[in-house]
Amino acid sequence: MSITRYGADGGVGTGGQHLPFSSAVEAGGWLYVSGQTPMTDGEVVEGGIVEQSRLAIDNCVKIMTDAGYGLEDVVHVKVILTDARYFQSFNKVFKEYFGEHPPARICAVADLVVDVKVEVDVTCYKAP
Q1: What stretches pass through the bilayer (predicted)?
Q2: Backbone angles phi, psi at 87, to 5 degrees
Q3: What's the pLDDT tens digit per position in 5-55?
């Protein structure tokens, strides 16, 4: 089995810092996308939970698409919200993306290392 690392050179985080991890890793038909926040080019995109949720998921989708996976291939999603009051709004956005192919999911409330409202990661599977 081979392992393919996407974005292994590392992305750019807040303040221009180099991120020392791959944006995704693929092995044996599985694609693990690193947690994505509502950032563009290393800068946080301000907005409410709806806007930030869409951008975090869009960032995951871009990485998945670049690796040859689609929303129908998502089997599990992990979500971290910084406030439990965001839960219902996040669910509405989540349904926009995954209503046709709902994956398994965990959603937790915790502080994040970046000043954002949400972080999302996905696990995909496609038979090799």
Answers
A1: none
A2: -55, -50
A3: 988 776 666 666 666 778 999 999 999 999 999 998 888 899 999 999 999
What structural domains and CATH numbers belong to the chain?
3-125 (3.30.1330.40)
In angstroms, rounded to a whole number, what is the distance separating the alpha carbons of residues 95 and 6? 27
Write down the pTM of the prediction: 0.92
Residue 28: phi and psi, rounded to 5, are 55, 35
Name the token pair of 19: 């991120």
Distance CA 110, CA 10 (A): 24
pLDDT for 42 equals 81
Alpha-carbon span 117 to 49, nearest angstrom: 6
